[in-house]
Amino acid sequence: MDKEIDQMDDQQIIAAFNAHYGQRGLDPAKFPVLSKRYTTEELEERLSFYKEYIDIILFFVNKFLSTIQGTPILVTVTDQWGYLLECYGEPMFLEAIAELGIIKGVRYNEETGTGSVPLCLRFKRPFQTLGEEHFFEALHGMACYSAPFHREDGAVLGTLSLMTGVDSAHPHLLTLLCTMVDSVEREMLLRRNNAHLHTLNQVLLEANYQGVVVTDAVGRIIDMNDQYLRMLRLDGGDKHLYLGTPVLEHRLVSPYFERVLARQEECIGVELQDTRMDADNYYMLDVLPVFDMGGSFCRIIGTLRDITEMKRTEEVLRNTEKLVFAGQLAVGIAHEIRNPLTTVKGLIQLAGPTSGLRHYDLIMSELDRMNLIVGEFLILGKPQEIRFREDWCMTILQEVLSLIEIEAAKNNVRIRCTCIREEKISCDRNQIKQVFLNILKNAIQALPGGGRIDIVLEADGGYQRIRFMDNGIGMPEEVLERIGEPFHTTKLEGYGLGMMIVKKIIASHRGILNITSEPGKGTTVEMGLPIG
């Protein structure tokens, strides 16, 4: 029968179903008791699921009913299985069908005989049954029209139906109903798209970890978030000042938007460096073309992520690798140099100053200096045992000055030391001597034509502060920023380890170090050691 029915027109289908019900022995004069229905809980669950659809249907139904006041029309909504979810219309009409047992929760199926709702769901297309086309005589005075409404994937989700008196029947009512269903489906699709766009808007524009800008197909800005304004340092801080303006005016990102505009090809993972401020900032840029449902280029979305901290971390890791290498180098040097150095020094000492060896004192002095240089490498090569004890800074400094005064005199450098206030510090005496010695050596080397070094001691803020000031050649900003990096030096015979050792020792003493310099005017090194 199903194969034959599929080849029939609507009138033939209705006649076939009426004949089928007659053959089953149903009495057209007795409208059945409808036994299949949802429980209260099941009905509430279905109403919750269909709420958005029902809200939209109600909006269009109210508009429709307002245009036909006085005409007895009932509007019903069912789910995909034919269970009645909602009824709207004239109260008298609602009461009339309620007397037949047609109320919310009941199911239209074979129990209700031939009708527009079961036929609509069976054949998945609009159907109408007028007057005596209904199997049961109780419905002969009605004209019923039903049309299916669908999900986005095309599956039938339910039916929307109109019921009126047979004397009010009109061929255009089914067409009007289909138009109403189309409007409902379009509105639902629009709401879903808007909800999807709102979600994307929240993910993109409201994300505080990235800057976002959206343009149209010719590069005019449609929207942007506050983070984008901050990253590009756009004046005013109000995005509405830039809406409608070309994104190509933003110098930092314009070349990549220009590429997407010209080729409609994405630019992914572009690293940008912004040098407009004192400190450089680094960003990762993605620029993506957007195409509409028809495949036409319609939008560009650009996102900026701040990777400045990541770049700084990479720099720290590179310096760490250098430190590891420096430590390995130091251990090798210690093994290769210190042992023969000790042997040579021991033999010369054994011979003694009376052995007639020329320049005995100078040789011993240079051997001591070589031993000191090897000691500097050993500080890098292996952990040093720090022996803290309370001591006076001025005492340690005077010992260092006595060691370096000859070198200072040879270079025509005057050293003046002033003690404003002194407090005892807890320190490793030998390591602090190493710090003072390295700083003073650098200061003397910065005075190739002679000059002055001023040393000031004062106590402030819980620290014993020692300030070394020279009037030497000074350093440019780019050199100053890299002080303390292993193997970074401006000296022809230097290794770039002296200030790295200074920083390491100061850090192990929980101290502070600050270096300022100006080319042609000199350098100031200020350190602070916690008061004991």
TrEMBL record:
Known EC number(s)?
Answer: 2.7.13.3
Report the Pfam families cross-referenced here. HATPase_c, HisKA, PAS_4
Instruction: Give TM regions.
Output: none
Q: Which reaction does it catalyse?
A: ATP + protein L-histidine = ADP + protein N-phospho-L-histidine
Q: Which InterPro entries does the UniProt entry name for this protein?
A: GAF-like_dom_sf, HATPase_C_sf, HATPase_dom, His_kinase_dom, HisK_dim/P_dom, HisK_dim/P_sf, PAS, PAS-assoc_C
Which keywords are on file for this protein?
Answer: ATP-binding, Kinase, Nucleotide-binding, Phosphoprotein, Transferase, Two-component regulatory system
One GO term in the molecular function aspect is: phosphorelay sensor kinase activity
Q: Where is the Histidine kinase domain?
A: 332-532
UniProt xrefs under SMART domains: HATPase_c, HisKA
Domain PAC, first and last residues per copy: 268-319
Alphabetized PANTHER family for the sequence:
SENSOR HISTIDINE KINASE (PTHR43065), SPORULATION KINASE A (PTHR43065:SF34)
Protein name, please? histidine kinase
Origin species, per record, is Paenibacillus rhizosphaerae
